[in-house]
Amino acid sequence: MKNKIIGGILGILGLVFTSIGVINLKDSLPKSKTKQYRNRSLKRPLYITYHHTASEGQTINQIAKGHLGRGFPEIGYCFAIGWDGKIYQLNDINEVTWHDSGHNTNSIGIVFVGNYHEKELPEAALRSAKRLQDSLSTYLNIIGVRYHRQTSPTACPGKYAIKKIQPLLR
Ligand SMILES: [Zn+2]
Questions:
Q1: Dist. CA 149 → ligand 1 center (Å)
Q2: Which of 59, 71, 83, 115 has an alpha carbon within 20 to 30 A of 3's alpha carbon?
Q3: For residue 3, what pLDDT band results from cuts at 50, 70 and 90?
Q4: What is 97-163 written as a DSSP string?
């Protein structure tokens, strides 16, 4: 029964993501052969946590390989947003991915691709973040939206992204 309900929400969200143009990379990124993220109930209260990759010119695939090299089961984020506003799904939302140590069980990690400590976050990326966040909030119990620096000693997601995403926070 429980699995049926989770499957239902995941299924509905899958259709919603498709309708807003989310590109599914879940099955095309490198994965660990021995490790897996654990799953969580999607009925639990969840946060959204924003990050940046702090990288320049790296593909999502290369970032995933970097995370595997650090012992992660798969890439650490659930979604990525490109500078051009393209949204990529990297993991299922019921997977407890590793993006914010100590807070992973309760949060969905969304990463802006680029280094937003060095440059402005493009409007297209900001608009896509809002669209994705609105979709997630419609179907899940999202109790807060924050950025990485609010929970950990890090500059992530960079001063320019922090400035731009203020209207999204709650
Ligand atoms: Zn971060």
A1: 7
A2: 71
A3: low
A4: -SSSTT-GGGEEEEEESS-TTTSPPPHHHHHHHHHHHHHHHHHS-EEEEEEGGGTSSS-TT-HHHHH
For 2-168, which CATH superfamily applies?
Peptidoglycan recognition protein-like (3.40.80.10)
What percent of the chain clears pLDDT 90, i.e. is strictly above it? 92
Output the CA 5–ligand 1 centroid distance in Å. Answer: 31
Q: How far is the CA of 90 from the centre of ligand 1 (A)?
A: 15
pLDDT at residue 6, as a whole number: 55
C-beta atoms surrounding 13 within 10 Å: 21
Cα of 112 vs centre of ligand 1, distance in Å, is 10
Is the Cα dihedral 133, 138, 140, 145 positive or negative? positive
| pTM given for the model | 0.95
C-alpha of residue 13 to centroid of ligand 1, in Å: 24
pLDDT, average across residues 75-103: 97
Give the model's pLDDT for residue 5.
57
Q: Check pLDDT > 70 for residue 14.
A: yes
- Report CA(117)–ligand 1 centroid distance (Å): 12
